[in-house]
Amino acid sequence: MDKDKIKTFTVTDEQGRIDKFLASVSSETSRSELKKYFDEKLVLVNNQTVKPSYAIKPGDVISLIERPLPVKEIAEENIPLDILYEDEDVLVVNKPSGMVVHPAFGHSSGTLVNALMYHSASLSNLGGVTRSGIVHRIDKDTSGLLVVCKNNFAHRQLSEQFKQKTSTRKYLAICYGVINHNLGRIDAPIGRHPTVRQKMAVVENGKPAVTHFKVLERFKNHTLVELTLETGRTHQIRVHMAYIGHPLLGDPLYGPKKVVGTEGQFLHAKNLGFSHPRTKQWLEFDSELPESFKKMLEELRKDSEK
Predict the structure, then answer these.
(1) What is the rounded distance in angstroms from the CA atom of residue 104 to the CA atom of residue 102?
(2) DSSP per-residue string spanning 281-302
(3) What pLDDT was estimated at residue 41?
(4) Predicted pLDDT of residue 188
(5) I need a surface site. Which of 72, 162, 177, 262 has the fewest CB within 10 A?
(6) For residue 264, what pLDDT is reported?
(7) Does the annotation count 139 as an active-site position?
(8) Residue 266 half-sphere exposure, CB side, CA atoms within 13 Å?
(9) What mean pLDDT, rounded, does the chain reach?
(10) Is the Cβ–Cβ distance between 135 and 159 less than 8 Å?
C-alpha cells in the first residue's frame, strides 16, 4: 500500500468510539462519508479492521486508508475559474479561498480539479485521476496562483522545477504582532504534530523546511509580510509563522482560539514564476488580493491611525 494513501493517527489520551474520534480530527468529513470507510474496511486499528463502535484507548494506532474515488465519481463541474494564462501545455489559475484543490477524503466535488475537468479536455494524469493537472497545491482557505499542467510532458518539466527550486512562489500574509526586523529566514523541520494529528508542527525528525519573509507594512498589532518558499511542506507558512510567535490572522488551526473573520487565514499566493516547459521562456504572474484581504488591510491602517 502506498504510504501516501494512508492517514495515521496515534491515540494519546482520547477515549470513546472510533467513529466519533475520526469525525473530530476530520471535521470537514460527513458521517455518510465516514460510514463508507468502515463499510469498505478501510479503517484499521493496530493493523486490524474495526467497527465504528470500537472503543479507542491510549496507544492505539489508527490507519485510515484513502478511499480511491472511481472516475465516475469525479464529476466535471461548471465552476467559474479565474484563469490568468492558458496554452496547450499549462494554465495559471487564481484559486479563491474556500476551494479545495483536488478530491480527497470528505471532498468529492466542488474542487479545483472538478472545475478543471469541465474546462479542459486534456489534463496530466501523473498524480492520478483525482489530481488531474495538479503539480503543486495550496490550502483550502489560502487563495492565489497555481500552475496546472495539461499533459504529462509539462507535468514532468514543472515538477522538476519545483524540485530544483528554480520556480518562484511569493505569498502575502497578515500576521499577529509587530515584527521589528525587516527580513527573516525560518529554517525549521516540519512534520506531523505529535498529539494533534490534523496539525503539522516544527519537530526534530521532520522534513527540512525553509521560509523567507520580508516586512511590507506594520500596523498597531499586526504585520503585513511577503513570504518566499524554498520548500513546499504542508501548512509550511502557517506553521513557521506560528513557530516564531506570529501566527497568521484568521488561522483557525494555528492561530488564537478566537478566530478573526470567516474565510480562514489571510494568506494569498500572489506571485508565481516558472520556465515554460516547452518554450523555456520565463513566465511570471501576479494576482490581485481578494476583496476580504484588501478590506482587512484598510481596517488595520485605519486602526493604526487612531
Answers:
(1) 6
(2) -EEEEE-PPPHHHHHHHHHHHH
(3) 83
(4) 97
(5) 72
(6) 85
(7) yes
(8) 26
(9) 88
(10) yes
Q: Residues 227, 229, 230, 236: is their CA dihedral positive or negative?
A: positive
97 is written with which cell numbers?
Answer: 479561498
Q: Which helix (H) or strand (E) holds 172?
A: strand 168-176
**How many Å is the Cα radius of gyration of the chain?**
20
Q: How many helices (H) and strands (E) does the chain have?
A: 6, 17
DSSP-derived letter for residue 207 is B
Q: Which of 53, 17, 275, 278 is nearest to 164 (CA)?
A: 275
The sign of the dihedral angle between the CA atoms of 18, 23, 25, 30 is: positive
Closest CA to 52 of 8, 11, 22: 22
Q: For residue 210, give the nearest of 195, 224, 190 by alpha carbon.
A: 190
pLDDT (0 to 100) of residue 3: 41
The whole-angstrom separation of Cα 267 and Cα 280 is: 30
Catalytic residue among 19, 60, 89, 139: 139
What's the average pLDDT block by block, 10 residues per block, for the chain (306 residues)? 61 82 68 80 87 90 70 77 96 94 75 92 84 89 95 93 92 97 96 84 93 97 96 93 96 82 86 96 96 95 87
Closest C-alpha among 118, 169, 171, 120 to residue 143:
171
- What pLDDT score was predicted for residue 27? 52
pLDDT tens-digit profile of 243-284? 999 999 999 899 887 766 667 899 999 999 999 999 999 999
d(CA 78, CA 57): 45
The span from the CA of 91 to the CA of 163, in Å, is 20
Closest CA to 63 of 205, 197, 253: 197
Non-local (6+) Cβ contacts of 45 within 8 A are: 18, 54, 56, 60, 61, 62, 63
